[in-house]
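[Structure tokenization] protein backbone as discrete codes
[Encoding] learned vocabulary of local backbone shapes
[Protein] chain in single-letter code, fold in tokens
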Amino acid sequence: FGDYPEGLFLSHYVDKESNMTLVATQMEPLWARTVFPCFDEPAVKATFDIRVVHLPNYVALSNMPEVGVSIREDESGTNWTVTSFGTSPKMSTYLVAILIADFDYINTTENGKEIRVWARKDAVKNGEAGYALNI
């Protein structure tokens, strides 16, 4: 983990006058190898089965739709949410994306497909995310 946007990193923001932290990935150009063992070459592709363990008040996002959510208790009695995502198509490692944040979303449906825009809860509440949804 680091605060510089390489591999898996922390980022800080303010929402509703509270200091917040999120976890995100930036795998390009060659930082995927700092997150998991891989051949970090565009010509080498693989499918990915992503499962993220996070605090229950946060949301986890990845490349594929969520396919399952469960709760696990650790040895100290703390409950954690486990979010599982569908298997990705074959893709390069630098395309793998993970986000863990206290975000909310707005959505619309176009041609039978749901489109979501995720943002800080305050930004969604104040209508600031609507522009991205209407492009």
